[in-house]
Write a structure and sequence with these properties.
The protein is α+β, with helices and mostly antiparallel strands. It is built from 20 helices and 11 strands.
Length: 407
C-alpha cells in the first residue's frame, strides 16, 4: 500500500499558495484492507474512505470509463493493480494531475509542473471531453488564477467548444451546475469565468440570457464601455474587488438581462428593461435552482436598480414604496445588499470605477428614518388592524418628506 497527496494540495503548494483541502490516493490496496485499518467508507459510486483520525478523504486508485451522458455517466474500476499514473490520467488538468509522497517527491507524468510555470490550464488527455462539468471547472480555475497570469490552452478551449456544441452540457443537473457557478462567482475574478464560458460557446448553452447582452449597445453618455455584456463583466468584477457576498454577485450578473430583449430599432436606449428582464432573471434562477436569497435579490435588483441610481430624485412616496418592496423593517440586510449591488453597477463603467456614489448613504438614511417611526404612539391612539398599517404608512411618509427636505 502506497499513499500519495494529489491534486489541488500539490498544485497550490507548488504555487506557494495556502493549502486548505488535502486529497489522498491509495495505490495497491483493497477496500477490505482500508476497513481493517479503521478507515470509514463513504460514497456509493467509488471507494472513498475517511481517515480514522483526521477525517480526510482517501480514495483507492481507480480508472474510469464513459458509460452515459453527463457528469455521472461513468463506470469506475478500483483495484490494487491500478497504478498512480492510471489514476492521474483521468483527472481534468495537468496542474491537477500531480502527486507527491510523504517526502514531497513529485510524480508528474503529464507535465503539470511545466504548465504551472508557463501559467497554462491544459487538459490531461482526450478523455477530458467526456465530462461536461469540466467546462465549468476549467472556467472556474481560469477565474481563480487569472491574477497569476493563467490562461486556457487553445487546444483545451477547443475541446471545451466541442463539448458545448455536443449538447452534453444540457445533461448537467441544476445542483452540479450551481455548485460550480457559485464557487466560480466567489473567485477573485469571476468575470473571467463568464468570459471563458463565452469564448468556448458554453455561455450560450447555459445562460443564453447573459450571452445575449454582448453586442447590445447602451448610451455612451451613461456607459462609456457601450456594450451591455462588457458592462455586466465589469459590474461582476467590481463586486469581487469589493468582496461582496454571493447574493450580490449573482444579482450583479443578472441585473441587466432585459437589455438583451430590446428591439434593435430602439438601441441604444432600453426603456423598461427593468421589467422586461424579470422573466429572464426568474428563468435563470429556476434553471440552476439558485438559493432563495440569491433569487430574491436578483429579482429585486433587476426591477429596482434604476430606482437606486435615481434615489436622490425620487419622491418621498416612491422612496417609501421602494422600502416597502424590500421589507426593510424585517429584512434590513437584503436592502443593504441591494444598495451595494447598485453601487457595483455604477462603478462597473469604463473610467467611472472610482466615482463616488452618494445614493448609497442617502438610501441607508431613508431606511433608517422609516424604521425609526414608532408604532407605540399609534397603538395608544387606538389604531389597530388595517387602520394601524395605514397610519404607520402616513407617519413614515411624513418622516421621509422631512428627511428629503433636510438633506
Amino acid at each position: 500500500m502506497q499513499i500519495f497527496k494529489v491534486g489541488g494540495a500539490v498544485r497550490d503548494r507548488l504555487l506557494g499558495l495556502p493549502v486548505t483541502d488535502i486529497d489522498w490516493v491509495v495505490v495497491g490496496a483493497t477496500a477490505d484492507e482500508m476497513l481493517a485499518k479503521g478507515y470509514r467508507p463513504v460514497g456509493a459510486d467509488f471507494p472513498v474512505f475517511l481517515h480514522p483520525k483526521t477525517g480526510e478523504e482517501y480514495a483507492l486508485a481507480r480508472t474510469e470509463r464513459k458509460s452515459g451522458r453527463g457528469y455521472g455517466g461513468f463506470t469506475f474500476h478500483a483495484s490494487p493493480e491500478v497504478t498512480l499514473e492510471e489514476d492521474l490520467i483521468r483527472r481534468d488538468l495537468t496542474i491537477n494531475a500531480m502527486a507527491e509522497d510523504d517526502q514531497q517527491n513529485l510524480t508528474d507524468p503529464y507535465h503539470g509542473q511545466r504548465d504551472l510555470e508557463a501559467r497554462i490550464l491544459r487538459h490531461v488527455s482526450p478523455a477530458f471531453a467526456e465530462d461536461p462539468l469540466r467546462v465549468l471547472r476549467v472556467a472556474r480555475f481560469a477565474a481563480r488564477y487569472a491574477g497569476l497570469g493563467f490562461t486556457v490552452a487553445p487546444e483545451t478551449l477547443e475541446l471545451m467548444r466541442q463539448l458545448s456544441e455536443s449538447g452534453e452540457l444540457q445533461a448537467l443537473t441544476a445542483e452540479r451546475s450551481w455548485k460550480e457557478i457559485s464557487r466560480a462567482l466567489m473567485e477573485d475574478q469571476p468575470q473571467v469565468f463568464i468570459q471563458v464560458l463565452r469564448d468556448c460557446g458554453a455561455l450560450k448553452e447555459l445562460m443564453p440570457e447573459v450571452d445575449a447582452l454582448f453586442g447590445v449597445p447602451q448610451p455612451e453618455a451613461h456607459h462609456p464601455e457601450i456594450d451591455s455584456g462588457i458592462h455586466t463583466l465589469s459590474v461582476l468584477g467590481q463586486s469581487a474587488l469589493h468582496q461582496q457576498p454571493l447574493t450580490v454577485r449573482w444579482a450583479c450578473l443578472l441585473h441587466d438581462l432585459g437589455k438583451g430583449l430590446t428591439p434593435k430599432e430602439e438601441w441604444p436606449r432600453h426603456i423598461a428593461h427593468e421589467h422586461t428582464g424579470l422573466k429572464l432573471i426568474k428563468a435563470v434562477n429556476e434553471r440552476f435552482k439558485a438559493p432563495k436569497d440569491c433569487q430574491e435579490l436578483a429579482l429585486l435588483m433587476g426591477q429596482y436598480h434604476t430606482h437606486g441610481h435615481r434615489a436622490l430624485e425620487l419622491k418621498a412616496s416612491t422612496l417609501l414604496e421602494l422600502l416597502q418592496s424590500f421589507d426593510v423593517y424585517r429584512r434590513p440586510q437584503r436592502f443593504e445588499e441591494f444598495i451595494v449591488a447598485c453601487e457595483m453597477d455604477a462603478r462597473g463603467r469604463k473610467g467611472l470605477e472610482q466615482r463616488s456614489y452618494p445614493q448609497a448613504d442617502y438610501l441607508r438614511g431613508a431606511a433608517s428614518v422609516a424604521r425609526g417611526v414608532a408604532v407605540q404612539p399609534l397603538l395608544e391612539k387606538g389604531f389597530k388592524g388595517p387602520e394601524l398599517g395605514e397610519a404607520l404608512k402616513r407617519e413614515r411618509l411624513k418622516a421621509l418628506k422631512a428627511y428629503k427636505e433636510n438633506r
